[in-house]
Amino acid sequence: MTMPRDVQSMAGSYLAFANEMADTVGPLARSYFRTPLDIISKLDESPVTVADRTIELKLRELITARFPEHGIIGEEMGPKAGDDLTWVVDPIDGTKSFITGFPLFGTLIALVHRDRPFCGLIDIPATGERWAALPGATQFNGKQSRTSGCEALQDARFYTTSPDMFTGAQKEPFERLSRAAKIRRFGGDCYIYGLLASGHIDLILETGLSLYDYMALVPVVIGAGGCITDWDGKELTLHSKGGVLASATAELHRQALETLNL
Q1: What is the model's pTM?
Q2: 71-74 and 183-186 as β-strands: parallel, antiparallel, unpaired?
Q3: What is the pLDDT, as a whole number, of residue 49?
């Protein structure tokens, strides 16, 4: 992806600001975690809590104060139009995990140039783990993060958040791919993409994701040496349809795409 030089030169500053925002809202997430919460069902029947809305509002306030010219897209509130740079935020990725006391929920922050992400951050407030990425480089808690190097589907450690997300015509491809791997496990939401970036797992397949669910994941996976696309092997943008395949290596990704689309 080609970006203007002024955007490239500011990438480090943008990621530093994303880290500052995560530092600010992390205590908010922890303050609500495992406490009684009013849970509201959205139109798509997914749960939302006061924690989601409070965190997103704080993120929006911080972005508007620092970069008023930038756009904002978040899960809980309407989009704010801006210039060619847009912040895409998910205050609590894994709300179902959050409301059931499972600690592997995360806050996702991405910066997108036009419709492609180039900075991304996965913050796990309950565990103190964070993956932060610029083009070509992903760090986990300040140290370089790399994928496993797995190149064979039969050796791969496969994860998805839930098998229940695959219905209808998508169920057979999911079963075919996940059964071809060495290990298949479930759960984790955005956390599993961090695990892939750190070399602990090798392959992820998901569907039905919204853009605020996957935008931050793209730089993290790619910066660690992995591949992440839609189910057809196309790059993920603001206009992708919600199917995500992430792999530790290009060769594993090729095999996974081939198996997925038999």
Answers
A1: 0.94
A2: unpaired
A3: 82
